[in-house]
Amino acid sequence: MTGPKRGRPPAPIDPNAGPAHRALLEPIRTILFSQGTTLDVVVERSGYSRTRISELLRGLAYFPAWEMVFSIVRSLHLPIPPLRRLWIAAAREAGRGEDWIRNGLDQVAHPGELPPPAYVGFTLRVEAAYADYARAFLLTDSRTNYVISESFDMLWVLWDDATTNENLHHYAWELFRSRVMTRAPRHHDGRLDLRAAVFSTHELHDATTPGHLVDLAELIDLFDAITRLSDSHMDVAVLRHLCGLPQERIAEVLGHTPAYTHSVDHHARFIVETFLTPPTPE
Hints:
single chain; about 280 residues; mainly alpha; about 0% strand
């Protein structure tokens, strides 16, 4: 006996969609595809046409009213409170006024669910480390808090999917990291720009602690070198040497073993020192 036939996924999200709009659409699309639900089923459950649903899932045409989004997410049995917050942020990004947003929300009376206790416990456990990492790139508390709220709302929507993953911490970290990278400043060549973080980092305020990579005077070069690392090496370097987290905590947050984290940190140090060491004249 075979399971339900998966429908063909809709085309990718419009590249012109803003980061908040993508944050709204990505978890909906992920659940839609993982459930194997066809657009025809969503059409039947929501009452909206295939064309309008396809446009919504791709971020095309006009920005959708909450009533339409609500109908679609309910058809997929998704939690309403996090998606409502994601929709509000996306509506503001799209230039919708507060009256339009409020009127849209008023069209749908729904008390909303409470988050799963396991989700609450998990987010409380990782929030401080996530905030330290995000602040290294985004600098301000307001940007940091926004990205954490956005990623945690996305994680709530995807919680069932996340908890069936073999590594919940890694799953959640990759989701969170993607939201930070979407908004992190970059150089003209697209490489991450950490120069401004020099003035707010743990390294700057605790420069006398033994074991740091380099002296204070070399921090700007250090930060530039860190952005040249691979993603996994950079994450460990940022959490360890910019945020000051111990290796055991980093391993837990990233979903790695302590031995792997130690190895990555050691390798990252070697690579950074190579970047910082001027070539020897022949």
